[in-house]
Amino acid sequence: MHVPVIYCHPIAESFAAAAYTYVLQAPADGVHMVTDVDLYVDGFDPMMSRQERLDCQDITRNTRTVLKYDDQLAAAEATVLIYRAW
Questions:
Q1: At residue 86, does pLDDT exceed 80?
Q2: Where are the domains of the chain?
Q3: Alpha-carbon span 16 to 80, nearest angstrom
Q4: Which among 60, 43, 32 is positioned nearest to 8, based on CA atoms?
């Protein structure tokens, strides 16, 4: 079973960071394949730029910044989300 762990938090000492570390260090059971997705490390920018909005109708351009995430989510049988809630 493929399980992406998607993490997004700017502070390494946060509760979310501790939860993220814990989930990634969980013992492998031979059934689950965990993929580590740290959006801050990837430099992912959640804000849509002007150009991205203009490219919205062009599928090739629209997906270029999220394609690797799309592939991971499409293959996932479960997903773990760890993010800040302020």
A1: no
A2: 2-83
A3: 12
A4: 43
